[in-house]
Amino acid sequence: MTTPIPAPRLTVGICSTGRVGTALGEALAAAGHRVVAAHAPSPASRERAERRLPSARLGTVDDVVAAAELVLLAVPDTELPTVIDQVAAALRPGQIVAHTAGAHGVDILDPIAQRGGMVLAIHPAMTFVGGTEDTERLSSSCFGITTADPFGDAVAAALVLELGGTPVRIDEAQRTLYHAALAHGANNLIALITDAVTALQAAIDGPHHLAAQATVDGGATGLPEQILGPLVRASLENVLNLGPSALTGPVARGDRATVQRHRGALEELPDPGVALGYRVLSARAAVQAGAPADLLDSIEVK
Fold it and tell me: What does 34-61 look like in DSSP terms, one character per residue?
């Protein structure tokens, strides 16, 4: 009488085995579900599925729907409507269909709901690079979930909890804003750091290009990345813990002269986008820090 009742185990099919679908398939298998089928339309996805999802039989979208109780749609947003129509045409009432698109809720799955499927939107708030580390990171990730009813909500939350993640309920009408916030914080961070690396490499090279390939410890990572790494990691931790009060540097001090010198140096780089990015983000930082008006004037972002 005291033995816990195990959660139901599902047969899982994945369309398709890109970075996200493969990682979620691995995580679901580790949680005890059976990944029985996968659609792998490219050579890279087939190789990935054969290596990391060995129990999955490769086939068409129809094959995946026929084999699985839970069908996971992990395809690019541009392909999602076409795949949804394919799944709806082959669906059996009662099957669970979940997509992983951040910017969509469950309205896009209406053709499946009309055929009697349970529809879920389950988006991992994580970046994926294509290795097994993607799967490991899911256990520390939040997942944005949107469903059509309380029963679907319970199923989506249970699946996320089984993966070790944290379910966060996002209203259907707010999915685009939710996804925009994540893209702004994660994808645009990559653009920011890439620009910083470009500027720092130019500073290290100097006029004589003596240190273009130098590293601190002889490793493969370039010197700009090794210099920026500890600073950027500390800044990220600080802002997550402290909010805008973590801001330091010339903008936080209202140091107009230094900001102007920064602008001048960055505008000498071949890529004008680096200086533009600095001006835009410095203006945002100045507003958040309550910097004086003359500092904002010196940034001059139109």
Answer: EEEEEE--SHHHHHHHHHH-TTPEE--H
Query: Alpha-carbon distance 287 to 265, whole Å?
Result: 23
Q: Do residues 113 and 208 both lie within one domain?
A: no
Take residue 168 and report the two structure tokens written for it.
């966060």
Non-local CB neighbours of 212 within 8 Å, separated by 6+ positions: 201, 204, 205
Find, among 172, 118, 117, the residue nearest to 146 by Cα: 172
In a domain, 66, yes or no: yes
Among residues 138, 170, 202, the one where a domain terminates is 170
Strands (DSSP E) along 148-288, which ranges? 166-169
Which of 170, 193, 222 is at the close of a domain? 170
164, 181: one domain: no
Domain contains 4: no
109-120 as b/e: b if 16+ CB within 10 A: bebbbebebbbb
Q: How far apart are CA 283 and CA 79, in angstroms?
A: 37
Overall number of domains in the chain: 2
1, part of any domain: no
DSSP letter at 301 equals -
What is the spatial distance between Cα 206 and Cα 225, in angstroms, rounded to a whole number?
17
pTM of structure: 0.88
Residue numbers of the domain that contains 254: 177-299
Q: Give pLDDT tens digits along the chain (302 positions).
A: 455 555 678 999 999 999 999 999 999 999 999 999 999 999 999 999 999 999 999 999 999 999 999 999 999 999 999 999 999 999 999 999 999 999 999 999 999 999 999 999 999 999 999 999 999 999 999 999 999 999 999 999 999 999 999 999 999 999 999 999 999 999 999 999 999 999 999 999 886 554 445 555 555 579 999 999 999 999 999 999 999 999 999 998 889 899 999 999 999 999 999 999 999 999 999 989 887 777 777 776 54
